[in-house]
Amino acid sequence: MTMDFQTWMRAVWTSIAEPTETARKVVARDVPREALWTALALVAVLNVILIAAAQMLSPVHGAMQEQAIALSPFGLAAIIGIFLVLFVFGTFYAGQIMGGTGTLPGTLAIVVWFQSVSLTLEAIQLVLVILSPSIAALYGLLSMGALVWCFMNFVNVLHGFNNLGKALAAIFFALVGTALIAGILLTLLGLGPVGGMA
User: Fold this and answer.
1) Is 50 exceeded by the pLDDT of residue 15?
2) What is the pTM of this model?
3) Which residues contact 186 (CB under 8 A, 6 or more apart)?
4) Could you give the CA distance from residue 99 to residue 97 in angstroms, rounded to a whole number?
5) Do 109 and 23 meet the contact criterion of CB atoms below 8 Å apart?
């Protein structure tokens, strides 16, 4: 199945406007696990490209990420990749602990799709930075709210909670666990800010 720009943007809009239905379709697709892990790696690489583009387009944004980009692109991709992998497992296990019924492949599919939507919105914001930084800033706040709403519904469907508050709690625990484990792991691997600047 081919997907042109208009079709993709329609899919992104639908993910935000109808996150529950989108989540059901994403989980039901039953994409091979190997393909999903490959897609997650691609998402990590695209994140690095967007960070580099943000530095070129916005000196302020670039200054904020100067320490991160001091790492090699491969190091930064590794950091983002590790975080994403841990977040997949964090979202899966946090939901399971709270009585959710989601599967690991389903969680992986949800995270990959969500990250794809998020990257699209970030790319749009980069374009807006060129046109109007103030509009880009407002758009950034709105898109952040839309993404939180979107992922809450994704997790709610994934784990069958039927409770957005419970989904939000699962996301919170997943993020905390991911941050803690990622911090320890990156320090051991020498990929943290200190290791990257040495």
Assistant:
1) yes
2) 0.87
3) 79, 82, 192, 195
4) 5
5) no
